[in-house]
Amino acid sequence: MSKPRKPSTAVREPIQVYLTEQDRGLLDRAAKSAGLSRAEVLRLGLRRIGTELLAAESPVPAFLQKMAEGDWPAEMPTDVGARHDDYLADIYADRHEHDEK
Question: The pTM is what?
Answer without folding.
Answer: 0.48
